[in-house]
Amino acid sequence: MGTFTTPVRRPPRLLKGFAILVIVGLLTVAIQAILAYLQSTAFFRVIGIEWSGLVHHSVPEMTERFQSEIGKNLFQTDLSDIRTRILSDPWIKEVVIRRVLPDRLWITVVERTPAAVEIGPLGKTLLRSEDGRVLDRGGLYDPALVRIVHFNVDTYDQALILARVVDRPGMVINLSKMDDLVVEMAGHRLHFGLEDYAARWQRFLRIEPDLERRGYFESEIDLRFTKQVVVRQNGNIQ
User: Fold this and answer.
1) pLDDT value at residue 34
2) 139 pLDDT more than 60
3) Do β-strands 180-185 and 172-177 pair in parallel, antiparallel, or remain unpaired?
4) CATH assignment of 42-111, given 3.60.10.10, 3.10.20.310, 1.10.760.10, 3.40.50.970?
5) What is the pLDDT of residues 99-132, one digit of tens each?
6) Edge-to-edge, what's the strand order for the sheet holding 180-185?
């Protein structure tokens, strides 16, 4: 006698597709229900904001600014909006915001550091950061900060480097020329160009005692030459 094999019946493809759709639909409904619960329950209402990295601003000050976030559902807080509002403050350079379950926001900031005081027309002052951002206006600022005139974004970084090399009390760095930083101090105007500041400063230090001995206190001193220093007193080369 022959052997007969009973064929295995497979569920129609249509039935399989329908089952998958049902499962996906149930999962979608479940996820939506969970999200709705998370966004409505009082358990996840924001009760506090934790701050890290503040130096110029205080924690109470910044918390008061963002008091409107207290009481909101943690999952409905708009982190992008909060970030934009924080970065609108000129003192804030970077910010990272995290939700901390169940009821807090954690905000870490990096503040800008004052680097220079710009002296404008009529003696008006601007406090500038290391990246040139205006942090404050019209105040009396740390005398240890370098003073600059004629702010120029293209040479500002170089002016800060030069200030660390020279570092004389009361000096002012003039940024009006694109290719020549000029230090004004003790009546002198020292032309440094845009490079080799340390060597050029040493050249001045070597001739400074001789200038004082000769009574030259208001001179144009060009330090940009490799083997000489050009001193002009009353418009005449000495």
Assistant:
1) 54
2) yes
3) antiparallel
4) 3.10.20.310
5) 999 999 999 999 999 999 999 988 999 999 999 9
6) 134-137, 125-129, 114-119, 146-149, 172-177, 180-185, 188-193, 219-222, 230-233, 236-237
